[in-house]
Write a structure and sequence with these properties.
- The chain is α/β, with parallel strands linked by helices.
- It has two domains: about 1-215, Rossmann fold (3-Layer(aba) Sandwich); about 220-479, Ribokinase (UDP-N-acetylmuramoyl-L-alanine:D-glutamate ligase).
- It is about 40% helix and about 15% strand.
- Strands 1-9-18-17-16-15-14-13-10-11-12 form an eleven-stranded mixed sheet, with helices on both faces. It has a seven-stranded parallel sheet with strand order 4-3-2-5-6-7-8.
- Helix 12 links the parallel strand 13 (about 300-305) and strand 14.
- The longest helix has 20 residues, at about 435-455.
- Bound molecules: ligand NAX, adenosine-5'-diphosphate and potassium ion.
- The site of ligand NAX has 27 residues, from helix 1, helix 2 and helix 3.
- Keywords: ATP-binding, Isomerase, Lyase, Metal-binding, Multifunctional enzyme, NAD, NADP, Nucleotide-binding, Potassium.
- Its cofactor is Mg(2+); K(+).
């Protein structure tokens, strides 16, 4: 599991750790890790040209100490001091002693244009709001240069706790972060500013709380979560997933949801709805029922909504059952908030940003720019597990104390009609297998994202291909 902690949590853990260490020890650990990462990025340190964008806080301090280490190895290092009177004094002395030089923002254009490497030490976890005008000007110069950009702790200008961006932020190729990930490094839009992220161990794990604020599943977590049939398994023990989806107008949504469910470990898939002929034509193994969800026979989880049109009856009926229910697409719109809140079995909702915006009564852009806030608010309002789809899919449980999961897999090629239907069938299957709602939804997002990458492999792909790629993803994860 990859963990991320909010600024307040990081600061408190740092205070505890610092009290046990000699003064300055933490900053030296951070600077040593940072300098090593920079040396890797440069390949050859001797003779390289390095520019340090240096703010007035400890983020600038880390940067100056790392610059001093690079200067001692033969790099030409120039620090651009944004606030000369308030620069970290000891770190600045160290840089000058190592042969580094300083300059002002107004004279920074030439060194930045010539640099091989630029370190962004303008602001770290002490930042609020987008970059101020003088720093924003430096960011423009960096964008125009060919230098490799390394962000120190985080790209300056992003909101560390949420991944929001208010104004200008600096774009990095690599972010070297200290002690723990910050949520903003994992969540878009800020995530794309961070480039690849490298975590430096400064000993903080010993003082951070065990439960992070945000987390991401990794391959090993998936391998542990995925259900695997045992000798005594039968189709009911493996889980029967019910799909109440599709309409005369959108039969394909039903087919794709069934495809996602069949490829994801369900012992059987039961279908109810007006698209039975289309479903059976493609998947003769589907159990089709003429009745609604309540009378359809034994099912361990329902998926309802994809391609449903305006018929609320199957959605309402599914919600009245005592098994987990997944609401997607039209089902989100047709579900009554009070009926969802009143359920005793889990409910999982899987909106994209547009659907989430409609449920929250805000503009789509507002959801996309503040994804963490939106997913938490929906989970709270519906007392449900919410999976907010998009460029970084987020999954929140109804309880605020549970970490929000960020899906690390995925590809923009998944933004293709019907791929969401595959995800809903896939999630339903994992719910029917007995996974807890947060695990089912985050494992499904992980598998779906990888299946999208496999299916696309750098070229356009379609929703059916994503479903067809699922077994190979499954095999690779278990291997
Ligand atoms: N506290 C610790 O023990 C450690 C801290 N470390 C470093 O210290 C950083 C935090 O240091 P600080 O608390 O001094 O804070 P920062 O250095 O992140 O930022 C504070 C300074 O940035 C300026 N600033 C704030 N918002 C700005 C904006 N939007 N545009 C331009 N300037 C802005 C403020 O005027 C302030 O002087 C971490 O990110 C990390 O890099 C590391 O050395 C590891 C140990
Ligand atoms: N920019 C993006 N990057 C990565 N994944 C994306 C992006 N845009 C959409 N997706 C993914 O593509 C899928 C699309 O689902 P959805 O919007 O419900 O489509 P549909 O309703 O057509 O099935 C979701 O899994 C979503 O997370
Ligand atoms: K920074």
């Amino acid at each position: 599991m990859r963990s991320a902690h909010r600024v307040e949590t990081v600061r408190s853990a740092e205070r505890t750790l610092m009290a046990q260490l000699p003064p300055g020890a933490l900053m030296q650990r951070a600077a040593a890790g940072l300098a090593a990462a920079c040396a890797d990025a440069l390949r050859r340190v001797y003779g390289s040209r390095v520019v340090l964008l240096t703010g007035s806080g400890d983020n600038g301090g880390d940067t100056l100490y790392a610059g001093a280490r690079l200067a001692r190895r033969g790099a030409g290092v120039t620090a651009v001091l944004l606030n000369p009177d308030r620069t970290h004094p000891d770190a600045l002395k160290a840089l000058l002693r190592a042969g580094g030089t300083t300059t002002t923002p107004s004279a920074a254009a030439q060194p930045i244009a010539r640099a091989d490497l630029v370190l962004d030490g303008i602001v770290g976890i002490g930042g609020k709001g987008g970059l101020r005008p003088d720093a924003a000007h430096l960011a423009e110069l960096v964008t125009a240069s060919h230098a490799t950009v390394v962000a120190v702790d985080l790209p300056s200008g992003i909101e560390p706790d949420t991944g929001e961006i208010h104004g200008t932020a600096l774009r990095a190729d690599l972010t070297v972060t200290f002690g723990t990930h910050k949520p903003g490094l994992l969540i878009d839009p800020a995530r794309t500013y961070a480039g690849s992220v490298r975590l430096i161990d400064i000993g903080l794990a010993s003082t951070l709380p065990a439960t992070p604020d945000v987390e991401s599943l990794q391959h090993a977590d998936l391998a542990a979560l995925l259900p695997h049939p045992a000798a005594e398994s039968d189709k009911y023990r493996r889980g029967v997933v019910g799909i109440a989806a599709g309409s005369a107008r959108y039969p394909g949504a039903a087919v794709l949801a069934v495809a996602g469910a069949l490829r994801s470990g369900a012992g059987a898939v039961r279908y109810v709805g007006p698209a039975a002929d289309a479903v059976l034509a493609r998947f003769p193994e589907t159990l089709v029922s003429d009745s609604g969800p309540k009378k359809a026979g034994r099912v361990q989880a329902w998926v309802t909504g994809p391609g449903a049109g305006d018929d609320a009856a199957p959605v309402t009926e599914a919600l009245s059952t005592d098994v987990p229910v997944l609401l997607d697409a039209d089902g989100l719109r047709l579900a009554d908030v009070a009926a969802v809140r009143a359920r005793t079995a889990p409910t999982v909702m899987t909106p994209h940003a547009g659907e989430a915006a409609a449920l929250l009564g805000v503009a789509r852009e507002e959801v996309e720019s503040a994804r963490l806030t939106a997913v938490r608010e929906l989970a709270r309002r519906y007392d449900a597990t919410v999976l907010l789809k998009g460029s970084t899919t987020l999954i929140a449980g109804p309880d605020d104390a549970t970490p929000v999961r960020v899906n690390p897999t995925g590809t923009p090629w998944l933004a293709t009609a019907g791929s969401g239907d595959v995800l809903s069938g896939l999630t339903g299957s994992l719910l029917a297998a007995g996974l807890a709602p947060l695990d089912a939804a985050s494992a499904a997002a992980y598998l779906h994202g990888l299946a999208g990458r496999y299916a696309a492999n750098g070229a356009p792909t379609a929703a059916q291909d994503v479903a067809d790629a699922l077994p190979q993803v499954w095999r690779d994860i278990r291997a």
